[in-house]
Amino acid sequence: MATSTRSSKRQKTGADTAAETDDSMAYKLIYWPGIPGRGEHIRLAFEATGTPYVDVSNKTDAGVNAVMAQISEKNIGDDNNPPPLAPPILQHGDTLLSQTPNILAYLGPKLGLVPDVAEDSAGMYHVNALALTALDGLSNEPHDVHHPIASGAYYEEQKEEALKKAADYRAVRLPKFLGYFERVLSGPASGGGEWLYGGKMTYADLVLFQTLDGVTYAFPKCVDKLRSRGKYEKVFAHYERVKALDKIQSYLASDRRLKYSMGIYRHYPELDDE
Amino acid sequence: MATSTRSSKRQKTGADTAAETDDSMAYKLIYWPGIPGRGEHIRLAFEATGTPYVDVSNKTDAGVNAVMAQISEKNIGDDNNPPPLAPPILQHGDTLLSQTPNILAYLGPKLGLVPDVAEDSAGMYHVNALALTALDGLSNEPHDVHHPIASGAYYEEQKEEALKKAADYRAVRLPKFLGYFERVLSGPASGGGEWLYGGKMTYADLVLFQTLDGVTYAFPKCVDKLRSRGKYEKVFAHYERVKALDKIQSYLASDRRLKYSMGIYRHYPELDDE
């Protein structure tokens, strides 16, 4: 049974920066190399806060084997950690965590990407809900658009069904989620409409930015049309606001930002508007 | 911006039981009436711990209107709370939270359904990851089996595609997730294999129980076949272990336990094994 209390004792202080560059407590992201994918949400949390991290599969010799060892059907985990089903996986000291929104929930308080619990005890849960909702509608669903029948089969084998699902996604689902986040940004809990919650940037803002960026890559004509309707002005202004942050700008211009290709977000022109 | 610190100050004490029966701080579940659905995970957390709660749509005059008011496209939330996209919604004092795994993360420490953070600072995140994974593979995917193209259209309009997705689910996805939880229960972090994590029941155990129960309702022949393979003995023993808990037994026999019908888990014989 896990008994480490290390992470609960850690507070973000000046000394922390040094501790994090010490290899044993460095944040290590284990994710498929070469694509942004779900790992991108974790990268953005680090990049937006200037937090050092090791992108294991892209930047060390371990490469894809770092992922394969974790998700092997022979892996039953260790004394502290259940095995993960899939990447992204965060390694932090003796702790290994999987599931994108879970890793973000863990990092949120450590990186200052959720409201301070002493000031707003429910804040981190509101942020978690907003991130989960963006991941549902703007990451999981876009994935299922090109893989509606079997995630383990080729797109070409389910293209006919993908065409149908894409039509529903563009006409119904995507507008629904954009409309939802427009309402969130219009509501008083956003604290003014610049950020999703509490008047400050949280990881939910980064997730909304990244998912909308991916959706725009996958369905550029559809997003263009929706943008021109003028019904989602706050959402698109929010997207530009995140993109214009100094640290995000630098990151997007760096070689650490990987190109979309055959991951969650895929650009098949036949699945987009005409 | 939300500034309430009420919930962080609350500790589970004897006095708490009284506080929770006081209407203002009672736990209120807002979910579609008449079906177990995703709301069932919240009910089970309360039922397994003997925690009083109000099942608003089923047990008060508000009925379905309690849900409709929350998810109205005119709702922009209030000073403390962003609007929810969908139920289940938990109301606790001034706090309104949506997203099933988020509500469970909020309730976990309050109901004693996650490890004590002082003893195991990462424990609650491991529990969250396990719950998210069960919800992904044993709740969201089974839903998508009968609605592979458009969640807003009828099953009959997408039956052809559902037949294909069901075949993949039964042959590939369901065995993958059962195999994963068998490994979790085989691993040292489970603390002996009776529970998923840390040798004690957590809300992840309740989620795995409920999702496997729903999958068994939807695909009885397939689950029978998989069970008879003997490869998932720990998973099925875990299911029986949760089901045999005194409070769960009483709950399942009560009229508070709703019958499956046309929700997430649907029994269409043509989607099951022959």
TrEMBL record, chains A, B:
Query: Domain of life here?
Result: Eukaryota
What GO MF annotations does this protein's record show? glutathione transferase activity
Q: Where is the GST N-terminal domain?
A: 25-115
Question: Which residue range or ranges hold the GST C-terminal domain?
Answer: 120-271
CDD domains named in the record: GST_C_Sigma_like (cd03192)
Q: Which SUPFAM superfamilies does the entry link to?
A: GST C-terminal domain-like, Thioredoxin-like
- Record key words, sorted: Transferase
One GO BP: glutathione metabolic process
Q: Please name the Gene3D superfamilies in this protein's record.
A: 1.20.1050.10, Glutaredoxin
Q: Does the keyword Transferase apply?
A: yes
- Stated name of the protein: Glutathione S-transferase
